[in-house]
Amino acid sequence: MPSIVQVALPTPLRRLFDYLPPADSELPAVGARVRVPFGRQQLIGLVVALRDRSDVPADKLRPVTDVLDEEPLLPASLFELLRWAAGYYQHSPGDVMVSALPALLRQGRPAIAEPEYSWHITGVGRDAQIPERYVRQHVAMSALTQSPLPEADLQALGVEKPTLATLAEKGWLERRVISDAAAQPGSGASGALDLNDEQAAAVDRILHHLDQFQPFLLDGITGSGKTEVYLQAIDQVLQRGRQALVLVPEIGLTPQTIARFRRRFDCRIEALHSALTDRQRLDSWLAARDGKAGIIIGTRSALFTPLARPGIIIVDEEHDLSFKQQEGFRYSARDVALVRARKENIPIVLGSATPSLETLYQARLGRAEHLRLTERAGGATPPALKVLDLRNRRLDEGLSQPLIDTMNEHLERQGQCLLFLNRRGFSPTLLCHDCGWIAHCQRCDTHMTWHQGHNRLHCHHCGRQTPPPRTCPDCGKSEFVAVGLGTERIEQALARHFPDHKAIRIDRDTTRSKAAMADFIEQINSDQVDILVGTQMLAKGHHFPRLTLVGIIDVDGCLFSADFRAPERTAQLITQVAGRAGRAETRGEVVLQSHHPDHPLFRTLLTEGYGRFAEESLEERLAAGFPPGGALALFRAEAADPTLPQHFLQRVRDILKDMPEVSLWGPVPAPMPKRAGKHRAQLMMQAAQRAPLQAALRQWTGAIENLPEARKVRWSLDVDPQEVY
Ligand code: ADP
Ligand code: ZN
Ligand code: ZN
Question: Which residue in 163, 296, 382, 520 has a CA-CA distance of 20 to 30 Å to 620?
Fold first, then answer.
């Protein structure tokens, strides 16, 4: 008879915790939630195992306080997956498991769906006179006079249900059920398109493997109709009574995407977008787990949605960096999705116009089947790319005369132009004209960006903002020069060069509100806009039919980064931005402004395309032993004291130095050695295979965690890091 309950708890500690069964009741089920004492607090965790004995002395063991679920909360395969992921990424198992749950379940609420209510003031309610002493009633009524509110928001204001019930009885308030439009069944009104030969072949291959684990790389140029392939494969999955899980990049879960699915299918579709309330999120989660929803579509974290009858996983734009979580539990949703598909024994489709070298390598090894879509669906022609040699040319705020001329040609023919620059603000540096002083961030090793619109200096790394100095702190003179380009500056130049055309700027500064982006897209598609200038927010996913010219203002900025992935990312970015041009009848044109027109990256990419470029880069990576030709893990550490991070990492190095087949690089200062007031350093582990690296981490992470030096720094371990600089 087991007598120990082993629990995963949301703490940073990489271990499980032992408890006695709850007083006078049965053992909880493995996979159920329990509430347990932890230090002086009570935490909610998941039961991972029941065991006969514990290494903890019997008098130190405490009983479980409460059992919250009679049944396991998650399907066994998902539970297993989470345990595996915690092990692989060397992260706290409790943190991994508990953070995969919706907030309400983390807080201990029952795992049952409940309608969610909003409160509205009635006509009579507007004239109601409430005595001052009924404080809560006052709060409720005055909040609701502005606008209706969800019950949870009123509770946050301190207004509880009994108060609301009293006001409702008086006829002053009224309660309505909130329903999430995205969770309603779709219309299923639009039918399947007739597939072209390549699309038909791709769908056919996927349908051949519906009952087994099989990864596919759907390698299709932008506009080639990858989504149509997903939709037709999903259709068959649904017809077999199974569910589809669709992962999209952070930027991809737009109302347009959701609408496209809802027009095609009449099943319940759960779109896990950021505007959901906690209650809606739990309801979606339950609908997926209990098999009521046919399709679940969401960003990275949607990977951990439980499914009653999983049938297929789709990862759209699989190369996108947003699939990798960059803090805390640093998992790659794409990589873990592959493991999930294997555990669930279902096919997985990784789609992209610019596949990652990792996935191309899987295809080369025969572990993923390579499906190609080489033509644009619906007859559009791929854009023509050319490099514009900037050497010795006059530039006006980054714009060369040939680019301006080309823009004029396109505008005359009623085309839209997009100018791409991956830097917001007006200029990345503000310089004293007299002595060369530069506005630096005091807390980071970097300069401050000048935002002219509200006349402030911003640090894009720590968020610090200051007004620009009136006089130079070094020499006292007051003439400053804005050096370098940002989107704000381009926007101004456009107003000068194209006074008769409407230009809009799309970057993080202009799209802070949720509605802003939708509003911009509406303006673009209803022809109110002629020129768009923006950052990589514009690079992905959008379909602008009238857009015919794309200008990449400063491609050189991307060419000379220290990261070994920089060429891959640059090629992906160029190809994706270029893919925005000429998606309808008119052929698109792409102009890359560069001082290095002979750079090898352009040579291959422009003449032979992304596929050839990726093949060549893959060879170089394999030769250098970098991923996917080898495995990496990165320790990072930071502290206010400049010596502690290096000191801690040196101890880590001492611990790991005798591991076979593992090389260590560092500790070295991080590429930005100081950020937000903290000094930073890093230590890289490299191995030709994953196995020895994983073995070293399994053996030693516990000891590293227990180092006394570990408590004096903030440190993290990133397995398969995506950004190493
Ligand atoms: P991708 O996802 O590869 O960028 P989409 O699936 O968005 O491409 O397709 C691009 C455009 O082509 C869309 O407007 C889509 O409706 C259209 N399309 C896709 N497949 C077909 C087809 N077989 N016949 C006609 N039009 C198609
Ligand atoms: Zn000066
Ligand atoms: Zn800073």
Answer: 382
Q: Which ranges constitute the DSSP H helices of 390-447? A: 401-412
pLDDT score, position 289: 95
pTM: 0.88
Of 85-94, 156-165, 622-631, minimum mean pLDDT range: 156-165
User: What is the rounded distance in angstroms from the CA atom of residue 710 to the CA atom of residue 640?
Assistant: 14
Contact (CB, 8 A) for 182 and 258: yes
Q: Which ligand is nearest to the CA of 480?
A: 2
Residue 87: Cβ-neighbour burial (10 angstroms; 0-12, 13-18, 19+)? middle
According to the model, what pLDDT value does residue 540 have? 67
Measured distance CA(433)–CA(139) in Å, rounded: 56
> What is the domain partition of the chain in residue ranges?
4-106, 117-178, 197-376, 380-423+486-623, 427-484, 631-719
Pocket of ligand 1 (CB under 6 A): 193-196, 199, 220, 222-228, 377-378
Check residue 518 and give its pLDDT. Answer: 79
Q: What is the predicted pLDDT for the residue at 522?
A: 84
SS3 505: strand
| Cα diameter, the chain | 85
pLDDT for res 559: 79
Q: Which residues 6+ apart lie within 8 Å of 46 measured at CB?
A: 7, 8, 31, 32, 33, 34, 73, 79, 94, 97, 98
Ligand 1 closest atom vs CA 222: 4
- Please state the CATH superfamily assignment of the domain spanning residues 631-719 in this structure: Ribosomal protein S10 (3.30.70.600)
Distance CA 233, CA 371 (A): 14
Residues in the chain: 725
d(CA 387, CA 552) in angstroms, rounded, equals: 10
4-106 topology per CATH: GIY-YIG endonuclease (3.40.1440)
Alpha-carbon distances, residue 656 vs 58, 112, 195, 403, 697 (angstroms): 35, 47, 54, 54, 9
Residue of the CA atom closest to atom 20 of ligand 1: 225
CATH hierarchy code of domain 380-423+486-623: 3.40.50.300
Q: Residue 490: enclosing H or E segment and its boundaries?
A: helix 487-497
Same fold, 197-376 and 380-423+486-623: yes
Average pLDDT of the residues in 414-421: 92
Please name the residues in contact with 680: beta carbons below 8 A apart, sequence gap of 6 or more. Answer: 636, 637, 638, 645, 669, 670, 672, 673, 674
pLDDT digits (tens, 9 = 90+) for 673-689: 999 999 999 999 999 99
The CATH code of domain 197-376 reads 3.40.50.300
pLDDT tens digits along 431-481: 999 999 999 999 998 899 999 888 999 998 888 999 999 999 999 999 999
Give the residue, 340 or 125, on which the prediction is more confident. Answer: 340
Q: Tell me how far the alpha carbon of residue 486 lies from the centroid of ligand 3, in angstroms.
A: 18
Ligand 1 atom index nearest CA of 228: 6
CA of 321 to the centre of ligand 1 (A): 24
